[in-house]
Amino acid sequence: MANTTKQQTTRTIRRYTPKKKVCAFCAENIDDIDYKQVELLRRFISERGRIQPRRKLGTCAKHQRRLARAVKRARFLALLPFTAEHARTSGFS
């Protein structure tokens, strides 16, 4: 019995450390995010039509703000859907 307690105390405990996410725009040296690049913007929108958060995408704060502005402009000009219901009725996917 003494042997098992010694093993437990000498064993190192490893914790999960998530890999650091890198901003996709910084990695590709993209400075301006254009609202007309619908294929690029679709990568950052969920199935429900919502903009994905920074913690999930890994984008930096500067590019996340620019991404949100571009998505909102594209929605206003009917290039992207506002909601999942719009996506279903308009055939967006």
Short overview:
With 93 residues, this protein is mainly alpha-helical. It contains 6 helices and no strands.
Describe this structure in words.
The protein is built from 6 helices and no strands. The chain starts with a helix and ends with a helix. With 93 residues, the protein is mostly helical. The protein has a single domain, classed as Ribosomal protein S18 (30s Ribosomal Protein S18). The mean pLDDT is 85.
Relevant terms:
6 helices, 0% strand, mainly alpha, elongated, 93 residues, 30s Ribosomal Protein S18
How many DSSP H or I helices? 6
* Average of the residue pLDDT scores: 85
Instruction: Tell me the name of the CATH class.
Output: Few Secondary Structures
Please state the CA-atom Rg, rounded to the nearest Å. Answer: 21 Å
Percentage of residues in helical conformation: 40-55%
Mind sketching the topology for me?
Blueprint: H1 2-10, H2 24-27, H3 38-42, H4 54-57, H5 61-76, H6 84-90
